């Protein structure tokens, strides 16, 4: 209990890995469309956005930039909170509450599966990660 762990598990052939990839491929285009105004893909993208911001007269000598470094981000995010945010995101951004033939309820079931199947062994004991998402999982 007092051993701080951040498990990184090689789960390449696990069923949840395929579901994780599927969810990422399904949801990434929608997320990127919605978050495009506030998301930078790489350094060049950031520089272009700053140049545009400056050209529009919004970059002032008094402008402040802030960065955050969140420790243990993957393990600190509460699962229920993640699922609630995902549900709200889907309800706001999907037409007819579907992607193709998949209903929001189907997507949520897959998301729960990915979050609930993070199992690893440590010192000959098996553990299930109950908080946060798995490091290296495509979906999380």
From TrEMBL:
Locate the Reverse transcriptase domain: which residues? Answer: 1-140
Extract the PROSITE patterns matched here. RT_POL (PS50878)
Q: What is this protein called?
A: Reverse transcriptase domain-containing protein
* Species the sequence originates in: Rotaria sordida
């Amino acid at each position: 209990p007092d051993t701080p762990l951040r498990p990184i598990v090689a789960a390449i052939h696990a069923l949840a890995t395929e579901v994780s990839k599927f969810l990422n491929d399904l949801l990434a285009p929608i997320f990127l469309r919605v978050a495009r105004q506030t998301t930078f893909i790489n350094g060049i993208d950031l520089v272009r956005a700053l140049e545009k911001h400056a050209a529009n007269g919004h970059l002032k000598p008094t402008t402040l930039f802030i960065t955050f470094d969140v420790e243990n981000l993957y393990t600190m995010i509460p699962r229920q909170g993640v699922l609630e945010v995902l549900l709200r995101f889907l309800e706001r951004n999907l037409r007819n509450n579907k992607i193709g033939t998949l209903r929001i309820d189907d997507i949520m079931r897959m998301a729960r599966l990915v979050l609930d199947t993070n199992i690893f062994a440590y010192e000959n004991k098996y553990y299930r990660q109950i908080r946060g998402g798995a490091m290296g999982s495509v979906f999380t």
